[in-house]
Amino acid sequence: MLQALIDKLEQTRSLTREEWIALIRGRSPEAAEYLFRRARKIRVQHYGHDIYIRGLIEFTNYCKNDCYYCGIRKSNANAQRYRLSKEDILSCCDTGYRLGFRTFVLQGGEDGWFTDERLSSIISEIRRRWPDCAITLSAGERSRESYQMLFDAGADRYLLRHETYDSDHYGKLHPPSLSAAHRQKCLWDLKEIGYQTGTGFMTGSPYQTPENLADDMLFLARLNPQMVGIGPFIPHHETPFARQPAGTAELTLYMLGLIRLLIPAVLLPSTTALGTIVPDGREQGILAGANVVMPNLSPPQVREKYLLYDNKLCTGDEAAESLRSLKKRMEAIGCHITVERGDSLNR
Ligand code: SAH
Fold first, then answer.
1. How far apart, in whole angstroms, are the C-alpha atoms of residue 25 and residue 320?
2. Strand, helix or coil for residue 113
């Protein structure tokens, strides 16, 4: 019964809400194994055994928002705040370029210091110095004009997880100032402007149901993004969700496999959060259909300050160190890290 649904998903890329719910609620280790085999096959058809690397630069942990799950929320008075200067950011790119990174991901909290002018000037300088690299932004919700300006400055891609499609569930994870509708509007704006757009959600976030995940999949099908980032929710001790249970690798891997079948040419990271809850999480993610890893390029002194959740992986490592270890891990499962921009084949 589940195999039939998995076959239907692979063949038609379209399931009803009821079918999604059945596939998610009824999952079993056998169904997961079957799914992962299909997902690996599809990954290899589109991207071979290549794994793309993205250099993550966590450029600020100031944030005006107060998401209940996030360790850098504004109400966390114990977070040590920092922001990288333009020179710091360029120096991360320089290190990254030498290591073979051809995509830089600038991720941060929603920090008003980074006005459109300041961010544009950083982006255009990266574009000028490293014209063969992709520039990805992950800086939260901004106006359409702002997204346009950053795109014109040279940004190619934007990551903005929708977090959860359902507005009631969204309301349980965020303060009233934030809404699912606005988050989704940002995503449609990004797509229209021409960004390679990434969205996604946490698995096992508090109060999440199979129905919520089914709605997430239906939203992914409509948005048809170039990238999808998912990872388990992991509690942070200084947030309202400190005592909520973490999401599981099992559910995360299963959802990765389903996303590979739904959007075959999608770029799908095996996330740090997945690697944090189980030691070989990132390898398992690749074996479930993922094809991207995002090692940290942030300066080691700020790593332990950009804590979205507890026990985050690799906070002490040098970039070169994390990359070496990832290369080995990928080789061990028959994959190799490639030095290419790795643009999405999902156009
Ligand atoms: N501020 C930006 C990007 C930074 S947060 C934005 O809003 O998009 C990047 C992602 O980390 C979020 O989209 C969220 O899904 C994830 N995240 C935040 N807190 C987390 C936690 N406690 N456990 C797991 N993932 C978390």
1. 41
2. coil
Tens-binned pLDDT, residue by residue, of the chain (347 aa): 899 999 999 999 999 999 999 999 999 999 999 999 999 999 999 999 999 999 999 999 999 999 999 999 999 999 999 999 999 999 999 999 999 999 999 999 999 999 999 999 999 999 999 999 999 999 999 999 999 999 999 999 999 999 999 999 999 999 999 999 999 999 999 999 999 999 999 999 999 999 999 999 999 999 999 999 999 999 999 999 999 999 999 999 999 999 999 999 999 999 999 999 999 999 999 999 999 999 999 999 999 999 999 999 877 788 899 999 999 999 999 999 999 999 999 98
Mutate to test the pocket of ligand 1, among 75, 174, 272, 308 (most ligand atoms within 8 A of CB): 308
Q: What single-letter DSSP state applies at residue 196?
A: E
**Does the CB atom of residue 151 touch ligand 1 within 6 A?**
no
Backbone CA torsion sign across 27, 28, 34, 36: positive
- Cβ–ligand 1 distance for 103 under 6 Å, the answer no
**Beta-carbon contacts of residue 142 (< 8 Å; ≥ 6 apart):** 116, 150, 186
Q: Is 236's C-beta closer than 6 angstroms to any atom of ligand 1?
A: yes
Q: How many helices (H) and strands (E) does the chain have?
A: 14, 9
273 CA closest ligand 1 atom index:
24
Helix (H, G, I), strand (E, B) or coil at 109: coil
Pocket flag, ligand 1, residue 135 (CB < 6 Å): no
- Ligand 1, atom 2, lies closest to the CA of 140
Q: Is 318 helix (H, G, I), strand (E, B) or coil?
A: coil
